[in-house]
């Protein structure tokens, strides 16, 4: 596989093998894995209870800070590169209780040495697409902290209902896993509980799917209270239908006991316990939903504040790793950023910027999109994504050096359409122009109506992009000429902050302004028209 384009791809970070936190956590879980189904149910039970207790206790351990309304993928405007994030997550003690949800499912999601497996069907994708998807899975797995050792792709009409890969390929995968010494297989799709178990039985190491990896990354990176709550909800939602699978493996263990003469039937304590766990999880989910709704109110308040201020809002959207946060830094860090205390305290992910003509607007970083974003997350992050729809302009960042930028553009647009943000004016910033193939850049600039090639790294194209943003902001529609007396300075200030000043002169009896403003301000200025 060619992973040249992914900074998160394996092989670039020799330190990644060190996982002090993981080592510290090595415990009975490890031993249990291979003994599964051989009467080890007590270890399993205790582990499950511990993990569930941690999940259900989650509320107490959430930080007591004011909700910021946005999750980390936007928060990282402040600014963590992937390398920094990896360093962070390696620090012991930073793992959250949320990770335990997936631990419940996989005994230990900590992925260390992984092999990827993908199914490629000729019906709905080309081999190239499947490879790009597997490459992306590789980057995701690396972001989650693992070493990707190898990968296999199988051409098959549909994934095998019992084992995801077909029998022959699954056996080949088992050999590969043994050969490279992997401890985890990551499948490029969403596996049912029985597929996962079926494949685990063949490859003899734990099997996880793409969704679990993405949820894990979000859990590692969620920082705000709302972000954490949303991720936890998504994880529980993912876990709930899979409890049965877990329970079935418990029953298999019970079966072992039956064989040993303990005589417990298929609807034994395991099944009852699942019901109980399910109820506890549902209760927790209901509580999270209530909390998230409450946080939504705070966000609405912020939003209406912005509307009252009538400062246009630009939302940066784009595929994960496209360089959204870097671009935000570039665009607002160039010295024009006015620190607005109000916005700064309310929401650290929204920054203030100005057009070259001095017209202020806000620039907001957003959650990164990813192909087959787990639907649980689409739901969970809908509220965050809806902020994009509330803006005036979408600044769509795409990684021009990615092997399939068109695919990324399309994936993001389909999610934007989901939250009704597809009708907004859109500027496409084709980022990483320093790395991209000039022919690809040309192709994209020809195809996209409102596109600029930029590099957040070198600064190339940034001025043009800033001008493009200025040109795309909604123009206040009342044009007027006024002479505002000096004792009404606040009106002049409002023309500056909410309108577009075309000309300004200081005369003996006031400030003469030629400007475009919103109707409300125009009405207040009526007395001073000239
Ligand atoms: N060469 C090059 N690298 C860039 C450029 N812009 C961003 N990067 C790198 O791309 C990686 C991702 O950048 P981010 O700004 O974190 O991307 P993002 O879109 O915010 O990513 P998520 O928040 O994870 O969705 C980082 O390693 C950046 O250093 C660029 O113009 N050129
Ligand atoms: Mg980012």
From TrEMBL:
Ranges annotated as biased composition (Basic and acidic residues): 13-48
Residue span, Hflx-type G domain: 312-478
Pfam families per the UniProt record, alphabetical: GTP-bdg_M, GTP-bdg_N, HflX_C, MMR_HSR1
Subcellular location: Cytoplasm
Tree of life domain: Bacteria
Region spans: Disordered: 1-48
Coiled coil: none
Alphabetical list of CDD domains matching this protein: HflX
Gene3D superfamilies: 6.10.250.2860, GTPase HflX, N-terminal domain, P-loop containing nucleotide triphosphate hydrolases
Position of the signal peptide: none
Sorted UniProt keywords: Cytoplasm, GTP-binding, Magnesium, Metal-binding, Nucleotide-binding
InterPro entries per UniProt: G_HFLX_dom, GTP-bd, GTP-bd_M, GTPase_HflX, GTPase_HflX_N, GTPase_HflX_N_sf, HflX_C, P-loop_NTPase
Family designation: Belongs to the TRAFAC class OBG-HflX-like GTPase superfamily. HflX GTPase family.
HAMAP family in UniProt: GTPase_HflX
Subunit structure as annotated in this protein's UniProt entry: Monomer. Associates with the 50S ribosomal subunit.
Record function comment: GTPase that associates with the 50S ribosomal subunit and may have a role during protein synthesis or ribosome biogenesis.
Protein's name in the database: GTPase HflX
């Amino acid at each position: 596989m060619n992973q040249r384009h992914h900074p998160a791809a394996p092989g670039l970070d020799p330190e990644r093998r060190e996982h002090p936190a993981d080592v510290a956590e090595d415990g009975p879980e490890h031993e249990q894995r291979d003994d599964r189904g051989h009467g080890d149910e007590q270890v399993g039970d205790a582990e499950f209870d511990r993990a569930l207790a941690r999940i259900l206790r989650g509320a107490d351990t959430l930080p007591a800070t004011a909700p910021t309304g946005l999750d980390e993928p936007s928060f990282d405007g402040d600014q963590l590169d992937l390398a920094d994030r990896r360093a962070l997550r390696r620090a012991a003690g930073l793992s959250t209780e949320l990770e335990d949800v997936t631990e419940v499912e996989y005994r230990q999601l900590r992925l260390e040495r992984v092999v990827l497996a993908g199914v490629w069907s000729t019906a709905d994708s080309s081999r190239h697409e499947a490879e790009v998807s597997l490459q992306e899975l590789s980057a995701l797995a690396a972001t989650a902290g693992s070493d990707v050792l190898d990968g296999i792709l199988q051409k098959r009409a549909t994934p095998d209902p019992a084992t995801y890969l077909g029998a022959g390929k699954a056996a080949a995968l088992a050999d590969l896993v043994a050969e490279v010494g992997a401890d985890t297989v990551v499948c490029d799709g969403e596996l049912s509980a029985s597929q996962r178990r079926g494949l685990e039985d063949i490859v003899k190491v734990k099997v996880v799917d793409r969704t679990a990896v993405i949820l894990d990354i979000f859990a590692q990176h969620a920082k705000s209270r709302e972000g954490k709550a949303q991720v936890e909800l998504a994880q529980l939602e993912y876990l709930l239908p899979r409890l049965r699978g877990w329970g079935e493996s418990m029953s298999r263990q019970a079966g072992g006991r039956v064989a040993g003469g303990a005589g417990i039937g298929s609807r034994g304590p395991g099944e009852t316990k699942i019901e109980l766990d399910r109820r506890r999880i549902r209760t927790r989910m209901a509580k999270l939903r209530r909390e998230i709704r409450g946080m939504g109110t705070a966000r609405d308040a912020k939003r209406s504040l912005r509307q009252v201020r009538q400062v246009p809002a630009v939302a940066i959207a784009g595929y994960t790793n496209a360089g959204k946060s870097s671009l935000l830094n570039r665009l607002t860090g160039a010295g024009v950023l006015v620190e607005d205390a109000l916005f700064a305290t309310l929401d650290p992910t929204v920054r203030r910027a100005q057009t070259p003509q001095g017209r202020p607007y806000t620039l907001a970083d957003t959650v990164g999109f990813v192909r087959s974003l787990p639907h649980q997350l689409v739901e969970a992050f809908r509220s965050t994504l809806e902020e994009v729809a509330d803006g005036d302009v979408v600044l769509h960042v795409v990684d021009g050096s990615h092997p399939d930028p068109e695919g990324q553009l399309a994936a993001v647009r389909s999610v934007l359409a989901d939250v009704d943000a597809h009708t907004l004016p859109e500027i496409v910033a084709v980022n990483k122009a320093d790395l991209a193939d000039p022919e690809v850049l040309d192709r994209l600039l020809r195809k996209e109506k409102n596109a600029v090639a930029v590099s957040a790294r070198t600064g190339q194209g940034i001025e043009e992009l800033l001008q493009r943003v200025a040109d795309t902001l909604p123009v206040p529609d009342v044009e007027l000429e006024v002479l505002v007396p000096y004792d009404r300075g606040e009106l002049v200030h409002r023309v500056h902050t909410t309108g577009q000043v075309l000309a300004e002169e200081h005369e003996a009896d006031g400030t003469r302004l030629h400007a475009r403003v919103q109707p409300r301000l125009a009405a207040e200025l009526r007395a001073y028209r000239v």
